[in-house]
Amino acid sequence: MAEIRLLLVDDHSVVRSGLRMLLENEDDLILIGEAGKGMQALELADQLRPDVVIMDITLPDMSGIEVTQRLKLAHPQMAVVALTIHEDQQYFFEMLRVGASAYVPKRAAPDDLIAAIRAAHHGDVYIYPSLAKLLVNDFLVRAGEGGLEVTVQDLTPREQEVLSLLAEGKTNDEIAAELVISPHTVARHRENLMGKLGLHNRSELVKYAIRKGLIKP
After folding, report:
1. Residue-range definition of the domain harbouring residue 56
2. Which of 176, 179, 78, 88 lies closest to 128, judged by CA?
3. Is 10 left (phi over 0), alpha (psi -120 to 50) or beta?
4. Residue 59 sits in the same domain as residue 116
5. Tens of pLDDT along 73-121?
C-alpha cells in the first residue's frame, strides 16, 4: 500500500497527541508535520509538500477555511480533510466550497477519519453520513426551485429516497432492506438517477454539486 504523507493542523496539543497515536497504528499513514496555527500550516505545507492535510477549522490566527483556500490555491494537488467540532451547514458548505475533499466531525469513530484520509488521497470525496444529508437536501431543494438543469421532478420519489440513502453511505443491500425492495431494484434506481444527473457514484455527486454551484454557503 502506498504511503500517504500527512500534515496535522490543530491548535490543541492534546488533540494532536491523540491523533498522532492513532495515525501511527496505520502502516500507510506517515505523519510528517504538525501545526498549531494557520500561518505555520501554510509554511509547513510549502516546505514538506504533504499528500493530505488534516485541518481543524478553529485556529488562533486564521480560520481553517481561509487556510484551506490559500493552501488549495498554492497546491491544488494537496487534499484537505476537515476534522472539526463544527457540524452546522455554514462551516460544512464553506469548507467544501474552498476545496476540502472530506469533512469529519471530531466525534466520529477513528475508522471514519482513516477512511476519509484514504479517500481524499485517492481523489475521492468523503462526507460523514449525517452531514451528507445536508448536501443532498440542498441539492433537491435547489432543484425544486428551478436552479438546476436537473429538477426534482426529473427524479421519481423512489429515486430521491435511493439518492438520500446512497449519500448516507448505505450499500444496495442496506437500501433494499430499508425500502423493502430487492437489491436488483435498488441497482436499477441508482442507475437511472445517476444517469439523469450524468454521474456515476456518490463522490461524483458531491463534486458535481460543488462544480455547478449547487451549494449555498
Report:
1. 4-127
2. 88
3. beta
4. yes
5. 999 999 999 999 988 888 888 898 898 999 999 999 999 999 999 989 9
